[in-house]
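User: Continuing from earlier, I have the next pair ready.

Assistant: Great, send them over.

User: Here they are, in order.

Assistant: Folding the first of the pair now:
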Amino acid sequence: MDAKWVVELLYWRDVKTSGVVFGASLSLLLSLTLCSIVSVSSYIGLALLSVTICFRIYKGILQAIQKSDEGHPFKLYLDQDVALSEGTVHKYSDCVLARFNTTVTELRRLFLVEDLVDSLKFAVLMWILTYVGALFNGLTLFILGLVGMFSCPIVYEKYKVQIDHYVGMASKQVKDIIATVQSKVPGLTRVKAE
């Protein structure tokens, strides 16, 4: 799964594939709001197992009636190698480790107030997230994120000029407000490292 495929999926270039992925993901998340993850996993496993067992029995009956010797209907999939190579595991674990180390370093910098302005921004973000957490649980945020991932890119693609115009206006106003606050409150201006 590469980045180009994900972009194609989120921009709905292939409507059928995007619809299936979006529908299946949304169905999974909505079912997790109603049942536990153990129940949902069990139901999905039972559904897949029911389909494969029925297909295997159907093909067995067809082979018996037609007196053919086609073999196991899932032979192609049973012969495929599904094991992960050590190189692949090392590659992805190295990426995860690098991101983890970067995150820990950044959190240390924020919590130990290396830069007052960045730590105050982080504090405001945490304060806002307390309100978000009071309104939504994590699963609801995942659902909203999924719907946003599949709808925002296509909306932005259609209305790019208007959105860029209003985002530019808002960004300028936010920069002006930050500059005003930093000039009026002592200690909030950034100190340039020498």
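And the other member of the pair:
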Amino acid sequence: MAGNANMKPIISKMFCSSSQVVLVVRRRPHMVSGGGFVVTDCSQRVVFRVDGCGVLGKKEELILSEGDGEPLLLIRRKGGLVEALSINRQWKGYSFNYEGSRKLVFSLKEPKACFAKKHPIRISVDQKEYSNSEDFEIKGHFPDRECSIVNSRGDIIAQVGVMKEVEQLMASKDLYYVAVTPGIDQAFVFGVVAILDYIFDGSTRC
């Protein structure tokens, strides 16, 4: 995978690695744990977890946390008249600082159904070092677990897939992997994955 290992962190440098990282996503059943999913590394250690309506009790709101439960991102869909008149639905990702206050980190534009074929999902990062208003976009089809997040140069920064041996055993797509390019912020990547999961599969919906 191509990528820029010198890319500055979006959430925190602690979530950037000097080598490629492959993490596994396991979706949780609604009846047992309120839905959402957990992200584990090769040692089965929980790195991230995502909770949605089944845990938070609010629609179109997600929390990305570290494995120990410390919240990293609050993700909300932006509604209202502006969205109603737009061709996109908008999602906003806010980081938490040590005082608990929130800062806008990224925005994701989800084309409405009638525009989806012509307009890809785009993500813009709200930081000074990223001057391009459309820094990343989604290539491929997330429901099939065959998609990538690419930057404005077309370089893949993260890739979603299913291991062949798992695909043969499981008809569902509840277990898949995300390979993150060196230097890329893994927390940011899974903030985007959390929204894609909500849009297409709804493991975090009520």
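Worth noting for the second one:
Confidence is low (pLDDT under 50) at residues 1-5, 129-134. The CA atoms of residues 52 and 58 lie 7 Å apart.
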